[in-house]
Amino acid sequence: MKTKYFLPLILIILFACNDNTTEPTEEFNFYGLKNETSQIWKYTSVDFDKDENFKEETRTKETVQLIGKKVVLGKNAFVLLKTYQDNTTREDYFYIENKKLYAHSKYITPNISAQGIDFPINIPESWVLIADNVQSQWDIVSVPITDAPISTPFGEAKINGTLSIKGLKVSSSEITFANKKFETMPVKIQYQFSGKISISFYNNDLNFTITEKYVYANNLGLYELTREPITITIPQLMTQTFDGRKTTLIETLNIIID
């Protein structure tokens, strides 16, 4: 089967509470924010397969810059401008409160148009919890999907079900950057789809989980983001494995590293 038909499914579905809490001894500075403008983070990103072989031909560079603050949905948010290698840009909004990092919901809503196919999923505009220095796991949002169309080699299909997005705090460790050590807070965000896929002659279950791992470094910012490879099986029709992608911080500007 050709990958191009099913790649939109991955891009579309990608859009992280219990009583187990650990109270930190001090505030965790997710983005190393010390001013309101000019701080810059430079990253490199590359695809890798399920055997952790990196594909250098896919490597790109991105730059993220703090460009100021803006009131968004009643919160005084800081604005991060991301510039991709092809010079396209996007703005994301965040705020930090009570040892938690919140993002505007569009941060977990991807570009849902790919290969000329639109997948109509709407996440209500809101603030969502991305990283928590207190809770060990939490619910982010649950999105119903009703008769969402997608093209397949077998004809037009419809998907029905629920996309649940959850967050999970995982064990921390130290990283070394610019010859200095930093405490980290790794967080996993899981996108769990549970539902059905139907074609004119076929109807069956469709269930999968996509996992992203964010590693925040105290007083530095987002150090690493990894989207793990995923295998999707449509019973009796096909199994497709998709590469993961790793983004790593390589340089900072105008950030004071104490």
The coarse overall form would be globular
Q: What's the architecture in CATH terms?
A: Beta Barrel
CATH class: Mainly Beta
pLDDT average, as an integer? 81
Report low-confidence residues grouped into runs of 5 or more: 1-25, 111-118
- Strand proportion: over 45%
Number of strands: 17
How helix-rich are the residues, as a percent range?
A: under 10%
Q: Count of helices?
A: 1
Multimerization status: single chain
Number of domains: 1
Backbone CA Rg: 19 Å
How do the SSEs run, as a string of H and E?
Answer: HEEEEEEEEEEEEEEEEE
Structural class: mainly beta
Summarize the biggest pleated sheet: 13 strands, antiparallel
- Under CATH, the topology can be stated as YmcC-like fold
Q: What is the end-to-end distance?
A: 52 Å
Q: What can you tell me about this protein's structure?
A:
- The protein is built from one helix and 17 strands.
- With 258 residues, it is mainly β.
- The chain has one domain: YmcC-like fold (Beta Barrel).
- Strands 1, 2, 3, 4, 5, 8, 9, 10, 11, 12, 13, 14 and 17 form a 13-stranded antiparallel sheet that branches. The protein has a two-stranded antiparallel ribbon with strand order 6-7.
- A hairpin with a 2-residue loop joins strand 4 and strand 5 (100-104).
- It is globular, with a radius of gyration of 19 Å.
- The protein starts with a helix and ends in a 5-residue tail after the last strand.
- The model is unreliable at 1-25 and 111-118 (pLDDT under 50).
